[in-house]
Known about the structure:
Elements: E1 3-4, H1 14-23, H2 42-59, E2 65-71, H3 74-85, E3 91-96, H4 99-108, E4 113-118, E5 120-122, E6 128-130, E7 145-148, E8 150-151, E9 156-157, E10 169-172, E11 187-193, E12 203-209, H5 227-232, H6 242-257, H7 260-281, E13 285-286, E14 298-303, H8 309-318, E15 321-322, E16 333-336, H9 343-358
Parallel strand pairs: 1-15, 3-4, 3-7, 7-10, 10-11
Antiparallel strand pairs: 2-12, 5-6, 8-9, 11-12, 13-14, 14-16
Helix pairs in contact: 1-6, 2-6, 3-4, 7-9
Amino acid sequence: RAFNFSAGPAAIPTEVLERAQEELLNWQGYGCSVMELGHRTPDFKEILHNAEKNLRKLLNIPSNYKVLFMHGSASHQFSMVPMNFLRPDEKANYLELDHWSKMCIAEAKRFANVHVEQGIRKNKDGLLELIPEDEWELDDEGKYLHFTSNETIVGIQFEKDPSRFAGKLVSDMCSDILSRPIDIEKYALIYAGAQKNIGPSGMTVVIVREDLFDTFHTERVPKLFQYPHVSAKDSMPNTPPSFGIYFAGLVFEWLLQQGGVEEMHKLNLKKANMLYDYVDQSSFYHSPVAKGSRSFMNVSIQLADKSLEQKFLEGAQRRHLIALKGHRSFGGLRASIYNAMSVKGVNTLIDYMKDFEKHL
Ligand code: PLP
């Protein structure tokens, strides 16, 4: 298999794919695929409950938080959050970083008042950086503060949680969930689409504080989009994304075998530092993001001579290093090094970068 640096859908650990392959036709001797298993059967319920139990263990999720496995994408959550939390006359704070938070803000504005706070800027060297929290002017009347913990496209990530709005933070953690420990109690709600660190696309995990359900305004919200309803039905108000849930369960087991998110975090920092250290000492490559704001999941890299990009990508492909092209809105190169990317994969990329520079 190639080393896959795709931002999403992203690489999945080979061992997990192999296990899914082994079980594909005949799940645990049952005589059919897990895809063909009725979702109301005790067997499927066990799959669902085990997935939830292991996710709780991995992220240390307190019992007053509900875990929901929902249909659809993170973008659905852009609307679901304001639909559930806010009446049209209520307010929320949104931190604007780049593409994903802009999409999210546009949705929220359709439902309520949104105070948008700029969270990103260029520093004096022209590098992108997060604006420090003490410069934010948030609206204290906001019911929550929404932020994207890792902005996948440009490769910017929060090193620590915002301290204001503790307990009332809402976060899009699509591209860094399960890559590091999280202090869940600072959050009202966390959501993440599956296709980076959890499994195949089409399923989204939501972690939400249960007592907030009483404060939600769901009268006009479609039933399937009401968090309290999905929770009351144990993530199964209708046929759930059953294969996605099963697959997520396999990934959660794999993560526990690797030592959990604490170990993954150490490994992820190691991989990212290897790559940034190499880029920083080079004059051929550089990072468009300032130190202190850099993502350890999505490493943006630019070539001093942009005209060499295509040649770089073609050479990388020949060495089985795939999906290194940056997002169309940002350009450059991007190495997404989620949990499934090995240290060996990052070393192979660095070796190729050295060779490319030498043998031009
Ligand atoms: N938020 C972030 C941070 C993302 O990286 C992405 C997708 O890459 C999304 C939201 C949107 O996800 P989806 O395509 O599942 O709606």
